[in-house]
Records
---
Amino acid sequence: MAAATVNEHLPTPLDATSEPPPLFDGTTRLYICLSCPFAQRTWITRNYKGLYDKIKVVPINLQSRPAWYKERVYPENKVPSLEHNGKVIGESLDLIKYIDSNFEGPSLLPNDHAKKQFAEDLIAYTDTFNKTVYTSFKGDTVKEAGPAFDHLENALSKFEDGPFFLGHEFSLADVAYIPFVERFQIVFSVLWNYDITAGRPKLAKWIEVVNKIDAYKPTKTDPKELVEHYKARFLAQ
Ligand SMILES: N[C@@H](CCC(=O)N[C@@H](CS)C(=O)NCC(=O)O)C(=O)O
């Protein structure tokens, strides 16, 4: 069971003119960008575990990035990153595991060895999944991306007992994919007139159920901004 959610009002993203927060004062801070799918993974994890007071979300404006972010927080200059116990760590897939195992709240990885291994395999496949889909934008998109969505449909068929990758329990495997599937569903529909769930009933059900999770709802991206961003980034000649 997810922890209770709160109706959170996040601060305006910090930009190049913003002073840094009082860094390394003992506050745990999760630096994100509101439209970043990698950061969204960590944001969902933090919400699902009910860590609203324990982990402060600090949105950053990546278009007008504050210099102190690279210089004093995270030299890779990307989001997400987590300031915790006097150090800063990054990489969304490492971070979701880190948050899950170092903080209180419902566990997002099962104890069952086979299920845990399946979650690890799925998490390891996310880069291939994303690469296959992003590469397809430059080619015969619907045809080339098909196997990536079929992979998810097959994975979702593994356990009979529920709509999620590991069956009835929501896990880090779901967290790792949903930000990207959310974006792909929108852009395939708007730009290629293609429904990624057509002929993929498990994927359709999974998306429907994940959309009801309170920890996920406030993290969803703005579809209009997304389509404009994808047009400019992937379809411009
Ligand atoms: N592998 C990283 C990727 C993070 C990433 O690329 N974040 C983007 C925003 S969506 C970013 O910070 N881009 C800024 C840049 O590359 O300068 C992760 O999983 O956390």
---
Amino acid sequence: MAIAVVLATVGFGGRRAVWESRRTWGEEDEVRNSVESRSVVINHGIPTGTIHRMKTAAAEFFKLPAQEKKKYPYDPNVLEGYGTPYPLSENESVDWSSALFLRLSPIQQRKLELWPTTPPELKDTVEAYSAEVAKVNKKLLGCLSLIMGMERNALFELHEEMSMLLRVTYYPTCCMPDQVLGLGPHSDASSITLLAQDDDVTGLQVLHDGGWVPVKPIPNALVVNIGDVMEIWSNGRYKSIDHRVVTTVEKARTSYASFVAPHKDVVMEPLEQMLDAQHRHGMYHKVKYENYLKYVLHRKLEGKAHMAKYTI
Ligand SMILES: O=C(O)CCC(=O)C(=O)O
Ligand SMILES: [Fe+2]
């Protein structure tokens, strides 16, 4: 069975953490059900205070006058800074959002001059949040490795020097929500993405059976998207999720996406463990992560059209 997507919502006080034991993840029905219903509720363990402080600091930054925010212009070479960096989708004349990109890891690659100094607590707050997200990521990759029939640390190691980028996106209110998207359709150039969002505004939508389905926020939860890297590694068993963000008239929205990706020199290809009797050959071409990323970042946001280049 091709597992379409793992779009996991990670919440407090819900079901037991799916990564807690191999058995939970290993139970076929559990995994299949979670995947088919497109949601897995897990306790991520990030203190609510840490998420709250992250959201407050980000809100302070986005409230600053434009000329203040522009002191940290987005630099496409290091993928950090403030701006509206994506090329627009075919049907869009404007993406109704702006974003602050910060490198969480490797720490030594951070370009700190692109980290806002207002509000002053932003840097420490991002550090605290990113340390927690990194823990969730490690656990999640551990579980995914197990259900893919590998050692717990296999996916973590496949990333080699793992990269984590935070994209905080602010979507202002919009008086023509039918005509303007906050962010065009795309799949993430990550292995997985861990996304926190505002608790009281729905904006994210995922493509399911040809229609856009809203992902209603669960307070303090994280949404986990499967990205293109995992699609290739899993030989298409886990498909990256096509998603977009709509605008609303009523309320501005902010989201916090942590993208996990391999080192730029990692050559991605379907993992041996994912080749079975039915799929004896890899369904994706080999590609260096750096080359894939260059290709994707220069394209318009057109859902998963870019994946055609890598699919056999
Ligand atoms: O705002 C969201 O909920 C999604 C953001 C997103 O898809 C992205 O940053 O790649
Ligand atoms: Fe995304």
---
Amino acid sequence: MSMIAAFYGGKSILITGATGFMGKVLIEKLLRTSSELRAIYVLVRPKAGQTLQQRVHQMLDCKLFDKVKEVCPDLHAKIRPISADLDHNDLAIGKEDMQELLSCTNIVFHCAATVRFDDHLRHAVQLNVKATQQLLLMASQMPKLEAFIHISTAFANCNLKHIDEVVYPCPVEPKQIMDSMEWLDDSIIEEITPKLIGDRPNTYTYTKALGEMVVQQESGNLNMAIVRPSIVGATWQEPFPGWVDNLNGPSGLIIATGKGLLRSIRATPMAVADLIPVDTVVNLTLAVGWYTAVHRPKSTLIYHCTSGNLNPCKWGDMGLQVLATFEKIPLERAFRRPYADFTTNSITTHYWNTVSHRAPALIYDFYLRLTGRKPRFTKLMNRLLKTISMLEYFINNSWEWSTGNMEMLMSELSPEDKRELRSTY
Ligand SMILES: CCCCCCCCCCCCCCCCCCCC(=O)SCCNC(=O)CCNC(=O)[C@H](O)C(C)(C)COP(=O)(O)OP(=O)(O)OC[C@H]1O[C@@H](n2cnc3c(N)ncnc32)[C@H](O)[C@@H]1OP(=O)(O)O
Ligand SMILES: NC(=O)C1=CN([C@@H]2O[C@H](COP(=O)(O)OP(=O)(O)OC[C@H]3O[C@@H](n4cnc5c(N)ncnc54)[C@H](OP(=O)(O)O)[C@@H]3O)[C@@H](O)[C@H]2O)C=CC1
């Protein structure tokens, strides 16, 4: 058994964001490789009319957990759902649940966040800043806590071209931002949001940077680390290649290309596409948890989980690979033959959006109306173009992330654990 997997044996682990894309892969890896762990507490909010037990059962029923069920038949017993809602200042955790979390938790992985780029600043601050502060307060009352791992994003400081593994201060202190959200009304917050986020593209990257400042300022004596993944895509190898469960980041646009919906996108083909498979992010995150607990660094270390300076790929190459893949393995019921190209200026982008996106959607919806069916392509195309407008910033810029801490961590790993992590770089 790997040194890292053995470390988690007997441990009680608290995961926020467990029902999310990364959270599911984190749980799967822990259960598959450290089945001797004591318990995984998952903070889950009741959603879409489902109880948290129903949500957890539905989560464990997905294909991702097929392999785990072979090696960890009692996986349902290992998972302890805890009702919580990070939209509430007290996280809406019941008294008894809170007592158990405080008394038992050895490791915290804080993955929960709003990852929407267009979230209202009030909500983004609540989830990505205030909830982090609340969890740090909880962690400070955990006598058995060995490590608290905060998942941020490599784009928290995307307003810089070169980003080191340090926490960069934001112009306004997180406490002032959180306090102002208590009394400003939504319309005023909307008015001042552009000034507050400054040269960051959205509330997501801004509030992830604020969350890092809270970790730095309010972690006290906690044994902390921050992991900054870049653009997280489908699984590379574990538990099987190609698993993804959302349309975020590249996934939605790749599928839209395969369906023949996306025909052109404004991108800089020579810009670095810093993509990282979700299982690599999880492997690094578990290694960070182990290293932080065992070696107890003197300060909060930040680890860039990025590929750009170790195994660079350009958007142009990625686009060609996407098209070649769909040539070989076409998606079912495609709207058109997959073909897409990059545009590099606003005029050609506007032209191709009209000719290749809006017009065909209008024509097809007209046909659907004529044949008595509900039109839907114009709405879908508008959403796709809105998504692209949000993502364009990230595919027309390049960043350089230092990876000293990540490479130091790799040097501390056993050959077996190193192989798991190096499989991607
Ligand atoms: C030349 C060849 C080209 C080949 C193509 C390859 C191009 C790849 C480009 C990849 C670019 C990737 C850049 C990513 C950068 C991320 C950087 C930061 C990473 C992080 O740290 S956080 C994780 C990333 N976060 C996100 O990606 C969130 C971004 N999304 C949003 O913020 C919202 O989805 C958005 C964009 C504001 C849209 O909101 P909204 O209109 O409200 O839509 P919903 O999200 O509610 O979804 C409504 C509806 O649409 C479906 N949907 C969502 N996304 C997509 C999509 N990308 N494509 C198609 N359809 C999509 C969704 O399923 C919903 O459907 P319903 O049926 O449920 O209504
Ligand atoms: N995906 C990516 O490309 C990248 C992600 N990251 C970071 O990784 C982490 C996980 O991201 P990812 O898995 O993609 O995100 P997802 O959107 O897939 O998951 C977000 C998780 O947070 C939970 N959550 C959201 N709001 C609440 C709430 N009010 N109360 C309780 N839980 C809540 C969600 O629960 P529910 O299921 O109930 O909605 C879900 O489990 C985030 O911190 C993100 O910033 C960093 C870099 C890249």
